Amino acid sequence: MLETSEPVLQVQGLKTLFNTRSGNLHAVNSVSFNLQAGELLGVVGESGSGKSVTMMSLIGLLPTPPAEVQAGSVMFGGQDLLKLSQRSLQNLRGRDIGFVFQDPMTSLNPVFTVGFQIMEPLRRHMGMNKSEAQARAIELLDLVGIPDARRRLKDFPHQFSGGMRQRVMIAIALACDPKVLIADEPTTALDVTIQAQILELVKELRQKLGMAIIWITHDLGVIAGIADRVMVMYGGQVVEYGPVREVFANPAHPYTRALMTTVPSVRGARAPKLNVIEGQPPILSQHPIACPFRARCPKAFDRCGRENPARYDVAPGHDAACFWDYQTGAPR
């Protein structure tokens, strides 16, 4: 998707750290990206790369302390979300920005019915009375494909399967017709069949509602199938960013290339041995002054240990943070 208008969400220079007994952990380091209206942005990277912390930083979901957003701006609706009070953020969350968490069993309150939990944001943010909220809750359960919606409003989370609970979480996130939906690995704990159903549901809802979506995942195959653009994160930084087809066809960062080699293939009579990325993720106890991927990178050279590369333009809308140029096969 090309940027044809003002982004619905604009993040610049976001930095987040955690104050711990053993020192500061620099979890998010100068992250910048834009999200267009109606766009689906995929965010990928291994565990600990900063995907979830980045998105939770945007809307004040991290506990402070130990978390601290040190710098940056998050422009949404003409205001910087990082400068808003907690009360203002609470009013914005659910109404303008929805969030679907990874584990629906721990995200849903076990002592309240599903109907109560869907109706709560409708009554708080939309000013609906009980009957109006109930009617809307039934519509939402129908929308996300839960049969016999009126009866199931009275059920508790433990009475739903894992896939149905995730559909309930999506219904809650969609309740107030948010402009942006952030989905944090919403299909990770589900079996493959249910994953496929949830992905189809998201595609349908995006077409119907036209909202912008940020989809956090480890699964490159999912991103290839549903996203417009992809943001690859490593060591709390954005290492590559651009249109999905462009990035997957011409990956410019060694980490992106390494990630793509780890995707299993079913070609041939015998499955080949799975590739792995040798080495360990970086320790985030120090602010990065060098390339975070240098210890695991086959293209690393002296400059990588002295400087942290800035993002450079690879192609229109496609950039990467690397000193190596794969197009010329030499350092930039």
Structure description:
The chain has helices spanning 51-58, 86-92, 104-107, 114-125, 130-143, 149-152, 162-174, 192-209, 220-226, 244-249, 254-261, 302-306; strands at residues 9-20, 23-35, 40-44, 67-76, 79-80, 97-100, 180-184, 212-217, 229-234, 237-243, 311-315, 318-321, 324-325, 330-331. It is globular, with a radius of gyration of 21 Å. The chain has 332 residues and is of the alpha/beta class. The chain has an eight-stranded mixed β-sheet with strand order 6-7-8-3-9-10-12-11, with helices on both faces. It has a four-stranded antiparallel β-sheet with strand order 2-1-4-5, with helices on one face. The chain is 32% helix and 25% strand. A hairpin with a 2-residue loop joins strand 9 and strand 10 (237-243). The longest helix has 18 residues, at 192-209. The mean pLDDT is 87.
Layout of helices and strands:
Blueprint: E1 9-20, E2 23-35, E3 40-44, H1 51-58, E4 67-76, E5 79-80, H2 86-92, E6 97-100, H3 104-107, H4 114-125, H5 130-143, H6 149-152, H7 162-174, E7 180-184, H8 192-209, E8 212-217, H9 220-226, E9 229-234, E10 237-243, H10 244-249, H11 254-261, H12 302-306, E11 311-315, E12 318-321, E13 324-325, E14 330-331
Parallel strand pairs: 3-8, 3-9, 6-7, 7-8
Antiparallel strand pairs: 1-2, 1-4, 4-5, 9-10, 10-12, 11-12, 13-14
Helix pairs in contact: 4-5, 5-7
